[in-house]
Specification:
The complex is a heterodimer of chains A (about 325) and B (about 280). Chain A contains 14 helices and 2 strands; from the N terminus they run αββααααααααααααα. Chain A is mainly alpha-helical. Among the domains of chain A are: about 70 residues, no CATH class; about 150 residues, Orthogonal Bundle (MetI-like fold), CATH 1.10.3720. The longest helix of chain A has about 50 residues. Chain A is globular and about 85 Å long. The relative contact order of chain A is 0.12. Chain B has a domain of about 140 residues: MetI-like fold (Orthogonal Bundle). Chain B is globular, with a radius of gyration of 24 Å. Classes of the chains: A mainly alpha (about 325), B mainly alpha (about 280). At the A-B interface, helix 1, helix 3, helix 4, helix 5 and helix 8 of A face helix 1, helix 3, helix 4, helix 5 and helix 6 of B.
Chain lengths: ~325, ~280
């Protein structure tokens, strides 16, 4: 490209609009949030003048650690379920005939053309104590309860000590789906599943399925071939799927708000509560910072892992090159 | 060779799982019970279907006023946010693609970080900014927030389009005597248009669907469609109207997407013919 004298100014001219906008409305506000965490709060809902660590100390004390732990636990569960379901789905789509693939992938994204809130609302109505699913769930619980109680006592005790069952876990009287952790996990999996399927699918599309046939010919059963050949080859897709699910799961607000009730308050809800309802801005800021860190940590780890892999690959390539050039020299 | 049926079975079940709520969204729009949207009364008698919610929406009945207002506000904000973020996003993508300076490294970080930030963090940080500057929240704060989170998506889509953009075309235009402005509008912009449109569509869907960020910066009394729906949970006598409106939106989106498909398909041979 030709070097022009006005390059510096034209670069600034083109960069300035978006740069200034994002600096003003993204970077600076983030810094404000972080700086607010080092202030105390005043009773009338303001931020105290002097710097202090009061807010961070308060974060250790009351119910905050429980909420943070619950958010992480639910996010892990949701991510796990999404990946477990997305893997066979992506595999099945990638194995379809070429003309069908785009159609099925589109079918998976289609539900997302209706409003997210409306879909969550539909789930809420569906899981309502008067709803059909609740009836089925109660029936299932009664069945489970009967099975559990018909077991010999020692088996019951073993299950309880293994943590697989607690006495009364199938108790049909308090078995509600709505306003429980289960509802939040279920609807989160529903909402984020397409974001797990898509990256895995686009990795699986490039996969050479004759490798699996080769493995089958060599005596592997289909699950073994899936596990030992398919999964390692689409690793990259799985990693981005994990991030695509884990990040929004950590930041989840609408789903626990509408389906979790008071039993399943997550960081997102607490931030909203503190910022809007109690007007305790430093606490809201501190929780937001905790959330940002728990999002950035897995992201940084992924970037580090990817760069290490790249470096390794490059090293291997360089070594191979050196080896070939050495043999060439020797030959000449 | 025998193909395993396990994966297709999971796929079928997942599709069912993804579609049940959509089917219910459509069904609830026809429910005669405005309070809890039942189709059967306590004795198990079928209550029947009704089209009254659709009628009320289309005639703009008084009880539908706030719902429809929130819907139009959503459209307005999504439209304006899309337009602005397309302009900002295209200039940003051009700058990021053309120059590789330290400034652009910082610029890229600024564009990329909002993509990985949960919505709620963008919401709270903007709220803090508006609180710190004592700006009153309302239409303009919602618009600013929406533009902020849409820009990054537009940049990424346009950048992807720029990946296979041959700068030699621009150089050729310069050599033929075109000025930078003329070249931009006559050469670069038409080539980038599909990317900008794709980014704009993404921005529009994100903006019209956003509830978390809006909930932080909307102030009292200003509701977009999603925040209005989430506030309706506790007290409403015409819930099915929400679902009826969503069904209308779903059908409109399907028609729009189908139409763009048909148009782009009918145009492709022409364009190919022209370049050939």
């Amino acid at each position: 490209m030709k070097k022009k004298t006005g390059t510096f100014w034209s670069e600034w001219f083109v960069t300035a609009p978006s740069f200034l906008w994002l600096a003003l409305f993204f970077a600076i506000p983030t810094l404000i949030v972080v700086s607010f965490t080092f202030h105390g709060h005043t009773p009338n809902g303001g931020v105290a003048e002097q710097w202090s660590l009061e807010t961070w100390r308060a974060l250790v004390d009351p119910d905050y650690p429980t909420i943070i732990w619950r958010t992480l636990r639910i996010s892990f569960k949701v991510t796990l379920w999404c990946i477990l379901l997305a893997l066979p789905c992506a595999y099945a789509i990638a194995r379809l005939d070429k003309k069908w693939r785009a159609a099925v992938a589109g079918t998976i994204m289609l539900p997302f053309w209706t409003s997210f809130v409306v879909r969550v609302f539909a789930w809420r109505t569906m899981l309502h104590p008067n709803g059909l699913l609740q009836e089925w769930y109660c029936a299932f619980c009664q069945f489970g309860d009967r099975v559990f109680h018909s077991m010999p006592a020692f088996l019951q005790n073993t299950l309880v000590t293994l943590g697989l069952a607690t006495p009364g876990v199938f108790d049909p009287t308090n078995a509600t789906i709505l306003d429980s952790e289960m509802a939040v996990v279920l609807v989160s999996v529903y909402s984020f599943l397409p974001f797990a399927i898509m990256p895995i699918y686009s990795a699986a599309e490039k996969f050479d399925f004759s490798l699996i046939e080769a493995a089958r010919d060599l005596g592997a059963n289909s699950f073994y071939a899936f596990r030992k050949i398919f999964i390692p080859c689409i690793r990259q897709g799985i990693v981005s799927a994990v991030l695509m699910v884990f990040i929004p799961a950590i930041g989840s607000y609408v789903i626990p708000q509408m389906l979790g009730g008071t039993n399943c308050v997550l960081i997102g809800n607490k931030i909203f509560m503190r910022a809007i309802q109690n007007r305790n801005i430093p606490h809201a800021s501190a929780l937001a910072t905790v959330m940002a860190v728990s999002v950035m940590l897995p992201l940084a780890l992924t970037v580090w892992w990817q760069s290490r892999q790249k470096a390794r690959e490059q090293k291997r390539l360089a070594e191979e090159k050196a080896a070939t050039s050495r043999t060439m020299e020797a030959a000449s | 060779m025998k193909k395993s049926l396990f994966a297709p079975l999971v796929l079928a079940l997942v599709l069912l799982f993804l579609y049940i709520p959509i089917i219910l969204v459509i069904a609830y729009g026809f429910s005669p019970d405005g309070l809890s949207m039942r189709f059967f009364d306590t004795d198990g008698r079928f209550l029947g279907f009704t089209c009254k919610w659709y009628k009320q929406i289309f005639t703009g009945a008084h009880s539908m006023r706030s719902l429809l207002d929130s819907f139009w506000l959503s459209l307005e904000i999504a439209g304006l946010a899309t337009l602005t973020s397309c302009i900002l996003g295209t200039t940003a993508a051009l700058a990021l693609h053309r120059w590789k300076s330290r400034l652009q490294t910082v610029h890229y970080a600024l564009v990329y970080t909002p993509l990985v930030m949960p919505d709620i963090l963008i919401g709270i940080s903007l709220l803090m900014l508006f609180v710190a500057c004592s700006v009153e929240c309302g239409f303009w704060t919602i618009l600013i927030a929406h533009i902020t989170f849409c820009v990054s998506y537009v940049v990424m889509t346009v950048l992807a389009r720029l990946q296979d953009f041959d700068r030699a075309i621009v150089e050729a235009a310069y050599d033929l005597g075109a000025g930078p402005v003329y070249t931009f509008f006559k050469v670069e912009l038409p080539i980038l248009m599909p990317g900008i449109i794709a980014g704009g569509l993404l921005a529009f869907t994100l903006s019209i669907d956003d509830v978390v960020i809006t909930a932080f910066v909307n102030g009292a009394g200003t509701n977009t469609f999603p925040t209005y729906v989430s506030s309706m949970i506790k007290h409403s006598k015409h819930l099915p109207a929400v679902f009826a409106l969503s069904t209308v939106m779903l059908i409109a989106t399907c028609l729009l997407v189908g139409l763009t498909r048909i148009i782009s398909r009918s145009q492709t041979p022409n364009r190919m013919g022209r370049t050939a």
